[in-house]
Amino acid sequence: MKSNSLRIVATMAGIVFAVPAVAHHSFAAVFDRAQPLELTGTVTKIEWMNPHVWFYIDVDNGQGAVENWGFEMGSPNGLIRRGWNHDALQVGQVVTVVGVRARDGSRSGSVRTITLPTGESLFGAQEESR
Amino acid sequence: MLRARVAVGICMFLATEFTVAQRSSSSLSGAVTDPSGAPFANVPIRAVNEATGTDARTFSSESGRYEIRDLPAGTYVVSITPPCCSFVPYSNDGVMLAPGAAHELDIRIEETLIALGDDPGTIAAEMLSRQVIPDLPVPRTDEGRPDLSGVWLMGDDPFPEPAEALPWAEAISQERIANGGLEHPHTRCLPSSPPVGGSATPFISKYVQTPDLLVILSEDVPGFRQVFLDGRNHPMNPNPSWMGHSIGRWEGDTLVVATVGFNDRGWTNSYPRTQMMHMGERYTRTAYGHMEVQVTFDDPGVFVEPMVRNFQFDLAPQEELIEYVCENNKWAR
Fold first, then answer.
1. Residue, of B247 and A86, whose pLDDT is higher
2. Which residues of B touch A78 (CB under 8 A)?
3. Residues of A in contact with B192 (CB under 8 A)
4. What backbone phi and psi angles, to 5 degrees, belong to B34?
5. Spatial contact of B261 and B241, defined as CB atoms under 8 Å apart
6. Could you tell me the CATH superfamily of domain B2-108?
7. Of residues B56 and B11, more confidently modeled
8. What pTM was estimated for this model as a whole?
């Protein structure tokens, strides 16, 4: 009994700590890591706003049509502290986005990296730079 | 003479016992790596003896190595609470240490799904690495009090003790853990709970101390807390609020803050909060660049015993607060 209670204690200490007062939504509920994305397109719009920066790109779907995709990044405050600024990404740039798709099937996703026309790669998801 | 003999006898007995203990004690060591396999530095590692409940603690080195010596032989629960929030807490039940053995246990921390796009732990580590902390004593006010003013990175408790909650509260907590905090107030751009406030990540705040008032600014709504230091009491019937009503007084070099008047819509970690909650904070600036913040969450509507956390604040003089307005929350439920 002692052993079990200690086990629960040790496990719970970690789990409780792991529920952060951080995300503005549950990542797992919104995005699906089983659906990785890599898309190249032209930036059409940038929303440099809290709690999450969003940007949109027009992507040639290979079937004669253009699809507009939206991607979420971290907060401006967090991105600024990691070396981004509000004009690091520009409307009209052709960028390649690597990320994961939203579960709801919409043309949207969360960003892992963005590669600029210069070849420079910017992070979207903070964990990538560890 | 007799006293001398007894003393010699005791010394010999203790020496023998010490030798036996040394021979039979064990050690636990290994390497901690992150999801990419790179060394994971400065993570808190805990080994709890299952039979006695005693626990030993250490942190991994810059190379990711850790070692805990002089452990009595037995079975241990080895656990790691990694920095919030990209990583899955680690717990290994039943790590058996034979008498006198040097047990090697390598630990690879896995990543979690919650944090992609917002990882305060990673940003906080980067920010800490670029801070330049003056080699100065703790600053003091004209009144001789420690001056808590400054921008602080609000680090969590590396070795959180588990809370014992009432059944209804525990059930809610378990549900929230299971769904990744789906209904957290942040999902609707509502405030996080003090004392570690903040919505933009990582959690950073600015303390502005005057003789009669401590103002705590944060990147969140409402963006401020007031701690009255002028000797006033709490209102008789405080307005239930997200931040509560705070008064403070000095006990030596420790600022003791009492807060009441919370609403019941905030969360205490993963637990619910009731209007009965009293929050006690003890701020001790132990060095120019560091502050120990012990917080007692005394909510008899939620906990059997008050939950205590020992937050670790680090000064971040190279940082500044940035405006935070939660206006682009597309996934709001």
1. B247
2. 118, 120, 123, 200-202
3. 21
4. -85, 180
5. yes
6. Carboxypeptidase-like, regulatory domain (2.60.40.1120)
7. B56
8. 0.81
